[in-house]
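Job type: complex structure
Entries:
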Amino acid sequence: MIGRMSNQDAVALTRSLLRFETVNPPGRERDCARHVGAMLEESGFSIQYFEHAESRTSVVARAGGNDAKPPLCLTGHIDVVALGSRKWTKDPFSGETEGDRLYGRGTSDMKSGIAAILLAAKNLSKKLSGTPGIVLVLTAAEEGGCLGSQHLAQTQLLGRAGALIVGEPTSNYPNVGHKGSLKLYARFRGVSAHGSMPELGENAIYKAAKAVAKLENFDFQAKRHPIMGAPTMNVGTFEGGQGVNMVPDSASVGVDIRTVTGMDHAALLSRLKDILGKEAELDVFSDMNAVWTEPQQEWVQRVFEIAGRHLGARPTPKTAAYNTDAGNLLKVYKGVPTVVLGPGEPQQAHQTDEYCSMERIRQSVAIYEDLIRDWCRV
Ligand SMILES: [Zn+2]
């Protein structure tokens, strides 16, 4: 009966989180973060709030803890993406349902995951004293650059963790990692002149164009990863010039590189510098290594077994297509085994009329509870 009640709460809790408008930009996660923090505080968690910018609030909550073994970390983000330009047929913030589907922005990505983490944590909070315990890292500003987790990693206040569960949408299927990302702008400068006298200027667009053409067939000199696949590079933006009758004195190219595990970002960056030439000024605005844990790792095998019991079949190793906060958190929780596992539907992330299966939300609470019990032996 208790299990049943908590399961119903999981959907209700997701709906209550949907009503906090945390669309990023601008984000404004503070109210939602304080609400979640107050809830955990009531269950006996110790709470810390962190703001990397005005009203951009992340929450770190702890329960239990001993010296013998570090806690299990569960993480998720409380911001959601914009509604997009297409019209929704469902209300994005009220939590409309239809059959097994719960609709709204963030149902899959990932307020359902946050709700399930909260509920599992709350249900077990009384039992965690004297055990390794758990730490919940609930972040602001994951969408568009993982700025909340980047800030948290820099504070040096995250403490330690022995394993990491990221509640991003996987339909509760444990994923053993995801690609890394290196995002940068390459800027080129020139000298402005009147468009009728180009010989008096120095054209920054020509410089950028010559440099960027060399990227099209960039050879990563990296082996294809058997599960993650190959690294990729995309030139996503090209900007320059202020008027057709002027010689442009600046141009900028936006590059998005997705790396696989084992690649050295610093070495990659230095190769890029060589290729783009010394006139290119590189501005790296996102740098997160790939996340990967060997599927044979002991705890990952436990996760496969526990999740497999709920899913009806033992999982096989897979990785997620998207990035997560794990890239930043692992800068602090160095080398800890990590799985991405959450109730959302991965293909529903960022969609119009986004939905999540209510059955999956309930299932994820049970899986998280089992994983916490297994870690803390309660
Ligand atoms: Zn997400």
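Summary: Residues 77, 109-110, 142, 168 surround zinc ion (CB under 6 Å). Residues 1-5 have pLDDT under 50 and may be disordered.
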